[in-house]
Write a structure and sequence with these properties.
Porin, Outer membrane protein with beta-barrel domain
Length: 178
């Protein structure tokens, strides 16, 4: 883009690389930032889990929404800290590996779909401004902790599970475009 041109609303505002957190060993996504104070992050991503990690390879498509609740604390002119966000991710695991989960169990044992999950999480992030002359003008490093909605519901149906048994942690990096 040359000086003075407006960016198309169809072009994502950022690219994201994420590991863990129920979105795959590695997850790559692109997203949009919306709202008056740029608090709403919407993202689509693809993640995978290689077969040598969990016995079967998994492919995951997810849609993620993050709401940054607290305005940033400025550490310096180039570094900001965002202490709290709430988010939700919907994931679809595709492939025949999920049909095999049900085999061998009595009818009704899996009362839920094994290929769709919803995860809620809390997040925090650090932003580092790179400069306006670059095509990537900011980079963020973030972490989140959460759990799937299904495991939360299962906890209430099974008292032997501890609340922290199904917590998951993720880390990521966001590259912002000018």
């Amino acid at each position: 883009m040359s000086f003075g041109q407006k960016r198309s609303k169809l072009i994502p505002n950022y690219l994201n690389i994420h590991t863990g957190g129920g979105n795959g060993l590695l997850n790559f996504g692109a997203g949009y930032i919306r709202g008056k104070k740029s608090k709403h992050y919407f993202e689509l991503g693809y993640g995978f889990v290689p077969s040598n990690t969990r016995g079967r390879a998994k492919n995951i498509i997810n849609a993620k929404y993050t709401l940054w609740l607290v305005k940033p604390f400025l550490i310096s002119q180039k570094i900001g800290y965002y202490p709290l966000a709430l988010g939700n991710t919907f994931s679809y695991f595709f492939g025949p590996q999920h049909e095999g989960l049900i085999a061998g169990y009595p009818r009704g044992y899996y009362w839920f779909r094994t290929d769709v999950t919803s995860r809620y999480f809390l997040a925090t992030r650090f932003d580092i401004k790179i400069g306006e002359e670059n095509s990537i003008n900011k980079i963020s490093f973030y972490g989140d902790i959460g759990r799937t909605l299904l495991y939360s519901v299962t906890k209430f149906r099974n008292d032997s599970l501890d609340f922290f048994d199904f917590m998951n942690v993720g880390f990521g990096c966001i590259l912002y475009f000018k």
